[in-house]
Amino acid sequence: MKFLLILAFLVSCSSKNKAIKAPETVSNEAFKKEKPLTNAQVSDYYKESAKSINPALQDETLDRLSQSELANYSSSSDPLLDISLKCLRGDFKSAFSTAALYFNRYQKVAAYWNQVANCHLNSGAHRKALLFYNKALEVKPNYVPALNNIGVMYSRQGMDQKALIAFEKANKESRFSKTPRFNLARLYLVYGLVDLALPLFQGLLSESSGDVDLLNAVATAYVLKGEFEKAKSYYQNVPNTEWGRAEIGLNLALTLKKLGQEEEAQKVLKKIAAPQSIGLKRYYVFVKSQLGVSE
Q: How far apart are alpha carbons 173 and 176 in whole angstroms?
């Protein structure tokens, strides 16, 4: 389904309450009786797509699109896609109003409840998100996008052990779903389990060879293994316009340093925009020290 995916790298793909309660924004259309759709009548994949530097999971999630890429979706005739786009743009009030408007049509569709839950997740309402993920699982047991996104939710809360269980269950339920594999590999990599992460990333990359995040992930795995020549070969496939991103450029600069290519490493370092996250700031200082650059 529509996984939602990613914390700097993570990706996302309910209860007895009716959708979102925002009666002041709901028109009379919401109360017209219509025959509810079934799960089989609603696709679990995005059919519309905008060009992206990270296309590997694009049919399952919009989470890895940049704001400029999201802007290429002007609107959509698909209500679930419309809800997703509004949530990703931060227009939660409109997204919830749209969800309420289409409740009668989609109340028996797991993808609908998953999308509502994703919107709560993105707004920071974790308890409500879990409520609606569970509703999706009630409508369709072992629904992979909801299982995956519960993992995303736990990861965002720093509960990585629970996240791991959710990702592994989602991956077990559907070996063909790419987003749980991506998130599972990402979590393995965070904890240095390179030999578990690398095959998953490489499998995804074989299906989408130009995906920038996957190229960076595989290269990072080889950096952690100390195989810098291999790491460099993957970084060379990343457009140099992306080297200014700290999560890419810092490891590339360190790789070049380890290979004795000091001048090239310095050039890459100079192009890196100062990172905002605490973790990347610390790593930025570390890499600068490795390259002999003072504050």
A: 9
Sign, CA torsion 167/129/90/37: positive
Six-digit token string for 114: 């998953």
Q: For the segment 97-150, what is each residue's pLDDT rounded down to a tens digit?
A: 999 999 999 999 999 999 999 999 999 999 999 999 999 999 999 999 999 999
Q: How confident is the model at residue 23 (pLDDT cuts 50, 70, 90)?
A: very low
d(CA 24, CA 231): 55
| CB 130, CB 60: distance < 8 Å | no
- 10 CB-near residues (< 8 Å, 6+ apart): 152, 155, 156, 183, 186
Question: Of all helices (H) and strands (E), which one includes residue 113?
Answer: helix 110-123
Token readout for 17 is 């309450």
Using CA atoms, how far residue 75 sits from 5, 226, 227, in Å, is 21, 46, 45
pLDDT value, residue 130 = 97
Tokens 């590997």 — which residue? 56
Tokens linked to 187:
């979590």
CA dist., res. 56 & res. 200, Å (int) = 13
pLDDT digits (tens, 9 = 90+) for 223-280: 999 999 999 999 999 999 999 999 999 999 999 999 999 999 999 999 998 888 888 8
Residue pair 120/128 in contact by the 8 Å Cβ criterion? yes
Tokens of residue 41, six digits: 């009548």
Residue-wise DSSP of 210-250: T-HHHHHHHHHHHHHHT-HHHHHHHHTTS-GGGTTSHHHHH
The total of other beta-carbon atoms located within 10 Å of residue 81's CB is 18
SS (H, E, C) 72-105: CCCCCCCHHHHHHHHHHCCCHHHHHHHHHHCHHH
Q: Region 13-25: what's the mean pLDDT?
A: 38
Torsion of CA 266, 270, 274, 279, to 10 degrees: -10
Locate tokens 């339920």: which residue?
173
